[in-house]
Amino acid sequence: MSTGPSKLWVEAMTWAGAQGAHHTKPGLWTGNAGEMDGVSIDVAANTNPEEVDGVPGYGIRLTSKTHLMACIFTPAGGVLGGGAPGDEDRLIAFFERLNLAGGRS
Fold first, then answer.
1. How far is it, in rounded angstroms, from Cα 105 to Cα 102?
2. Most CB within 10 Å of its CB: which of 2, 11, 14, 38?
3. Cα–Cα distance, 68 to 82 (Å, whole number)
4. Is 80 in contact with 92 (CB distance < 8 Å)?
5. Residue 44: left (phi > 0), alpha (psi -120 to 50), or beta?
6. Which residues does 19 contact at the CB level (< 8 Å), separation at least 6?
7. φ and ψ at residue 95, rounded to 5 degrees
8. Distance CA 75, CA 60 (A)
9. H helices of 24-101, where?
10. How many helices (H) and strands (E) does the chain have?
11. Helix (H, G, I), strand (E, B) or coil at 96
């Protein structure tokens, strides 16, 4: 059992923060992270403690307009729906690469 925040949350929130998501801004921050294996990844980050538009406080929602996928998670973990086996690991690696590249896809 791992301790600490979810690895996917850390990588996705780090990317969103580098793109402008910040706790001083109300509502959800939204952006597109680019494509992962041909799947466009839309990101909604809630950088505040209250739930906003179905995203828990400090949560992230990943969706795609091109594929059936939805993911909502917080530092404690979350759920990935409509994905394929291994998608969580692929998403972690995708955001790690973006963060290493300075936030660009």
1. 9
2. 11
3. 6
4. no
5. beta
6. 29, 31, 103
7. -70, -35
8. 9
9. 87-100
10. 2, 5
11. helix
Question: Letter for the amino acid at 44?
Answer: A
| Whole-angstrom Cα Rg for the chain | 13
Phi and psi at residue 10, to the nearest 5°? -60, -50
Give the SS3 label for residue 70.
Answer: strand
**Where do the structural domains in the chain lie, given as residue ranges?**
7-100
For 17-29, what is each residue's pLDDT tens digit? 999 998 877 889 9
What does pTM read for this prediction?
Answer: 0.87
Torsion of CA 84, 43, 105, 83, to 10 degrees: 0
Give residue 105's pLDDT: 53
How many whole angstroms separate alpha carbon 77 and alpha carbon 39?
22
Sequence-distant (≥ 6) Cβ neighbours of residue 85 within 8 angstroms: none
pLDDT in tens, 37-60: 888 999 999 999 999 999 999 999
